[in-house]
Amino acid sequence: MTRTPPFIFSIVPSLILLSVAFLPSSRAGVVDPRCRVPDRGSTLRVFHVNSPCSPIRPATGGLSWEENILRMQAEDQVRLQFLSSLATGQKSSVPIASGRQMIQSPTYIVRVQIGTPGQTMLMAVDTSNDAAWVPCSGCVGCSSSTVFDPTKSTSFKAVGCQAAQCQQVPNPTCGVRSCSFNTSYAGSTIAASLSRDTFTLATDPISGYTFGCVQKAAGTSIPPQGLLGLGRGPLSLVSQSQSLYQSTFSYCLPSSKSLNFSGSLRLGPVGQPVRIKYTPLLKNPRRSSLYYVNLIGIQVGRKVVDIPPAALAFNSTSGAGTIIDSGTVFSRLVAPAYVAVRDEFRKRMGNATVTSLGGFDTCYNVPIVAPTITFVFDGMNVTLPQDNILIHSTAGSTTCLAMAAAPDNVNSVLNVIASMQQQNHRVLFDVPNSRVGVAREACS
């Protein structure tokens, strides 16, 4: 079995900011020089949400470390519900958590210039969605103070009902002059008119980009300034920019411990790593935009744990299998796989007393030395050391295995490789060759 070098990781908070080099520091009157660096070519800089350049730091309201972990778990649970509905083609419903607001914060935000002249929007990037949409002027229920104003763009056009794109959006309807659609995102809904305008990423303009101009929104799960889908569907960035980027992109996520907070989103085949291991991408015809991969085993230390093959098997009818997702923070495994990993992990900890924290059922209040965990994919292994698989309280009194079983109240056939496992290495999505690659890289 071929092993790739161990990757060094750390926990990702629920929000990371992409390409906000134009933004000032949060300290009044002070601009950090790192915030002035512009995007170049087809590469956008990645900043941590807590960097001096971030305008959208999550409002924790003085929450403790434990309360913040529970908040992120609640957000992830909504995300898992949403992903499971995508995989199986079923409508999503949101679980109710007593006393806790379910807000699905976007995990990554990319700076996009829309229109002529360009209007800056910070759009959530989501590898499990396709169509782009932004709040437009006059939107009812949109939470963002920044909206796109079509009347100020000389290149804006409405998409007519006869256009092919009108049949590619969910629930299309025909208005007086243009196509409209309704869709859901996690526990929220939007109503939008289908539109076209120029999208500029870094220095690359993409003319005639089809997107939804949101007119009405309801719910708390919607990214404030909209969403830019990186899935594989016909209205995704991957498809609409195919002639420019050849349906290829990669990202490298920085560790939250990084002082510089910066990584990158690289669009197109130019500048992608040459020395990289790949695993095949699989397709679910029922939801072809999701990035399925073939996870064939999991090791704890050097031991391959005993997981029923059905827990990892890809099944396009049921939606079962494993996906790589940018919007989930903590990896989730179906119950039989998680229990096998957890039990072997606990075994390695000896007689240390096990406690729990919300959905994390393997926590310790004493110092521990954890074994590595290796995801074994078809053609590629990814080995996770302690910094990747453990979260630590700020006071240092609690340490938890940062993985969990899929929530009981969602379709529990989907394994999700989450953003915590996607740090300090480059993940390359090569759609034309139906493969995803992983190469170690210091992202900051």
TrEMBL record:
GO terms for biological process: proteolysis. Keywords: Aspartyl protease, Disulfide bond, Glycoprotein, Hydrolase, Protease, Signal. Residues 1-28 form the signal peptide. The keyword Nucleus does not apply. Residues 108-439 form the Peptidase A1 domain. The keyword Glycoprotein applies. PROSITE patterns: PEPTIDASE_A1. GO terms for molecular function: aspartic-type endopeptidase activity. Belongs to the peptidase A1 family. This is Peptidase A1 domain-containing protein.
